[in-house]
Amino acid sequence: MIDWKDKREFWIMGARIADPSAERMRVGSVCVQRGAITEIVWQKSVDTDLPVLEAERFVLAPGFVDVHAHLREPGYEEKETIETGTAAAAAGGYTAVLCMANTNPAIDDPSVVEYLARRASLVGNCRLYIAGALTKGLGGEIVNEYGLLKHAGVSALSDDGRWVTNSQTMRTALEYAGQHGLPVISHCEDSFLAQSALMNEGYHSTRLGLRGEPAAAEEIAVSRDIMLAALTGAHLHVAHVSTAGSVDLIRRAKKRGVRVTAEATPHHLTLDDSLLESYDTNLKVQPPLRGRKDIDALRAGLLDGTIDCVATDHAPHTEIDKDVEFDEAPPGMIGLETAFAQLHTRLVKTGVVDLLDLVRFLTVRPAEALELPGGCIKKEAPADLVLIDPEEEWTFDRALIRSRSKNTPLVGAAFTGRVQGIFLEGKWRSAIMG
Ligand SMILES: [Zn+2]
Hints:
Blueprint: E1 9-17, E2 26-33, E3 36-41, E4 52-54, E5 59-62, E6 64-69, H1 82-91, E7 94-99, H2 110-123, E8 127-132, H3 146-152, E9 156-158, H4 167-179, E10 184-186, E11 199-200, H5 203-208, E12 212-213, H6 215-232, E13 236-238, H7 244-256, E14 260-264, H8 266-270, H9 292-304, E15 309-310, H10 319-322, H11 339-348, H12 355-362, H13 364-369, E16 385-395, E17 414-424, E18 427-430
Helix pairs in contact: 2-3, 4-6, 6-7, 7-9
């Protein structure tokens, strides 16, 4: 644990700096003054009168940016709040999160947007970006007043949790969103094909006797939305891509010049549907965990840029919600606090991607995909940074969880690589309790 009393002006010295715009990591030192990066030098140390944080053991990266989190406030504060959700984000190395609109009331009115922005700045754990609902009450029929939502401060529009089944509504939504310069994040899942499905349709669903959801449920939705993005010229962002077929559709759409970006979650990148043998309801997610072939396609898509970024789809549910029969449990798992460690352990340590690539997928690529600030290390930029010990071995203990909900299958998992804390505008927040 780093013992660092908060200071306004200081140097972080000798860290390996993971600057996503660079080809490789280099040892350097960074000066932080009044919340901004004022100097970057490629030396282990510099002469200075300012306080120094010795960071030779660590990697210094831009603070992570999550473009998909459910923070549940207002309406489901028993699952998560802006306070606990952003605390979980900060503990996971995130300096910014985008919260989804499926709250109660939904984020479909400027007053809700203003309330959330105020809550987040009062709490001050990390930056909050807000997705406004695409349709009134997420009903899928009446398109919201995007001009008013944008004016109130939304960064994107989404009915995430549901797909807009009415193609005319989706066309209108994309057209209006395009006029207001807002990306549309689509939860691509044909609700009729996915109805009452509990897991991926395949060998394991047959063996377990659980109703399966075919890959086609997602791919039909991705296809239609790509066609409507092409028709309208609007920016479509495909949430939580989970199948090889979707990766292929997005790759081909990008080649034709359609304005489409996409994300994949840490769980879809690392966990497969054979794990459902345990009937652990924390493994029930939407879209469901898929097979090995899909996981390989997602990883290849991230590496070739088809999938722009990693997003957590952090989806808290209480123990009472999840401690039920498998078919009764709501879908979703929390992910903000384990995203980096899980991906570092399963993708970097196994040689699938290198650490600098992983940092890109968590920083500059999500920021660019959703046109948000941040995700880089440069002079004059806000000092939103994360300090990582890539060698620390640790076990994810339930007692460590800052989220209000504990629904993750990763309790007890052994990780290599640990977020030590973040600097948010230069202000240190330890990720490690004690
Ligand atoms: Zn979703």
